[in-house]
Write a structure and sequence with these properties.
The complex is a heterodimer. Chain A is α/β, with parallel strands linked by helices. Helix content of chain A is 35%, strand content 25%. Chain A has one domain (8-256): P-loop containing nucleotide triphosphate hydrolases (Rossmann fold), CATH 3.40.50.300. The radius of gyration of chain B is 21 Å and the shape is elongated. Classes of the chains: A alpha/beta, B mainly alpha.
Amino acid sequence: MEAVAEDKKQTPKTKEEVVIKIKGLKKSFGEKKVLQDINLEVHKGENVVVMGRSGEGKSVTIECIVGLLTPDGGSVKVFNEEVADLKDNKLKELRMKIGFLFQSGALFDSMTVRENLEFPLTRVLKIKDQHELDERVKEVLEGVGLLDAIDKLPSDLSGGMRKRIGLARTLIIKPEIMLYDEPTTGLDPITSREISELILDMQKKYKTTSVIITHDMECARITADRVVIMNDGVFIAEGSFDSLHKSKNEIVKAFFKDIL
Amino acid sequence: MAEQELELTGWRKWFAEIGDQCIFFTRFLRNIFTGGFEWSEFVRQCYEIGYRSMMLVGITSFIMGGVLILQLRPSFVKFGEEGMLPVSLTISLIREIGPVITALICAGKIASSIGAELGSMKVTEQIDAMEVSGANPVQYLVVTRILAVTLMVPLLTIIGDVIGLCGGFLAINLTDNISFYLYFHKCIGAIDFSDFLPAFVKTIFFGFAIGFVGCYKGFNSNKGTASVGIAANSAVVTASLWIFFIDAFCVQITSLLFYR
């Protein structure tokens, strides 16, 4: 499929270094070719929103970035390192710089909120000092506005609260890159908006680079510096939210048709 | 990384699974000795697996001891050898019935619970979350569980054997009259080191098989809610089969070493 470059002049390209560089990425599952030729550069401090229909391979793309999936072809470089070529220790070091917010929040349901937040600190950063652990847990919980939930189990939390705690757990190790997999799916419009604004606040506070996978147009509008649209395993359009809103491309128009 | 379901059938699928299990076993071995041991999780698992299974193993062993006496008694009375009932019960319980029954109960209770727990953690992306945070899910989830089951099943078997003998004592006293001291004197006099040691050693292998199969099935389940049930079910079936294979193999070895 021919790629349509939408109004690239309006895209807020910065002179900042490229932290994620994807070139010719291909990935299949059995006979199904999910990613056919994905090319993307994400600059430091930028918020890139990836949109596309369900099953198009958006989540597969970010799972390749973090090394959860191995590409069949092409290249995924993060901080100039080829992810697929990294040995276990190097991959672990890279993952310490990347936060990944899963669609469900992926909280460890046998642990309390406090234990969930302490887990990456004690296991990954090897922090043993209880005072420091308490300080960092308190800081991120205040950031997401859920200090009261510190001793609750994930089963006692609502969907929105689980997403916030999931966000807090990824931010607690102070990552340089944040990958969000459908952060507002399954939430009501008010909570979705709160989560979207929280993503933006956290990005400003921690100066992270973000890739956000979403179907939620409001989330994309609030968070995106740049939007890329995926169709049939390739990116077909790229630009700011407003420029894509005016696009003549039928597939892009279909995404924006309910936006006034 | 079991990221892709290959569409294999028949023998190819069987060989692929054997290969997967070998890789999983290597990961387990490598993670025992590298990167620190999760002592607190290991102790928690010992409590969950050992202490919480004790009641079930105890009740079953008690009934089994009693039933064996009631079933054996008519034949022994026919030959005027009812005095040999404690001896027969002890040998059959210590050598074979105690270890196998305890292991089968543990396969039903523990393998299924590990398979379901890890399977649901896979479905809800908790294992992926652990991996992308830079923590080691094999070290935290797999090593601790397999070692805890390997330690607890032999201990549960010893407890089950003693309770089974108590059940036998009660059953004998329903019809005959024998003192507690004389009964246990006969029981202990009936066994020696060659009865106890091979039975104890095989329970270590039973425990390992239960833990390994439960963890493998859960850790490698597919990403769908139905796969949690499938993981739990196939963990029980496979662990039970392994118990019979190991038992048959151990009996051959024991016969060659001790009973020639």
